[in-house]
Design a protein that fits this description.
Blueprint: E1 5-9, E2 25-29, H1 34-47, E3 52-61, E4 70-78, E5 97-99, E6 105-109, H2 117-126, E7 130-132, H3 135-145, E8 149-157, H4 163-186
Parallel strand pairs: 1-2, 1-3, 3-8, 4-6, 6-7
Antiparallel strand pairs: 3-7, 4-5, 4-8
């Protein structure tokens, strides 16, 4: 039986350095944000069984001790939800934290592009060191389908004022870093 992994990114630009065809991998681009991530990955996993989901993409750093580079994600939280008691980071029906089962960093997911100091401080208080718009959904869906997931995020910006412009300028370099990392990690 052929072993196939699913290579996932939110945006095609995050995969621009990757070859169009990658032996042993199917490719999925979901679109940005939690809903698009959940919808896209659910459709893919409903249609075919995969041995592993491999998510690649960019993330903002919200902890000053986090250096540039590529990080495996061990867990994801949501920074843009609150429960009925008003507790930030707690959802009314979803777990407060989802885990990949790997060593790594905690990423905070939300449906906003974080680029200001106040948001960064709130996310750090929740325990996030990186921030993105999809990882919580990817991990949650993978768990529902009982498929192992690995999330690798490259730091694209410092999630401070002006991060939106910085991201646009560095996404090509980030994609190249991720492709080099994938080649080493998966002997491609």
């Amino acid at each position: 039986m052929e072993h196939v992994r699913l290579l996932v990114a939110a945006l095609a630009s995050e995969l621009q350095a990757f070859p169009a065809e990658l032996p042993g991998f199917d490719r999925l681009v979901t679109g940005p944000g939690k809903l698009m991530a959940a919808y896209g990955l659910t459709r893919a996993l409903d249609a075919k069984r995969y041995d592993e989901i491999v998510v690649v993409g960019t993330a903002g750093a919200v902890d000053d001790s986090v250096e540039s580079g590529i990080y495996d994600v061990s867990a994801a939280i949501q920074h843009d939800v609150q429960d009925l008691d008003g507790v930030i980071g707690q959802h009314v029906s979803l777990p407060s934290r989802v885990e990949t089962g790997r060593d790594g960093v905690t990423i905070a997911t939300g449906d906003i592009f974080v680029d200001d100091a106040d948001a960064v401080a709130r996310i750090r208080d929740l325990g996030g060191v990186l921030v993105d718009m999809e990882t919580f959904s990817f991990i949650w869906v993978a768990q529902k389908f009982d498929v192992p997931i690995r999330v690798m995020r490259v730091v694209s910006d410092r999630a401070q004022d002006g991060a939106t412009q910085v991201w646009d300028d560095v996404v090509a370099a980030c994609s190249a870093q991720l492709w080099e990392h994938m080649q080493r990690e998966y002997a491609i």
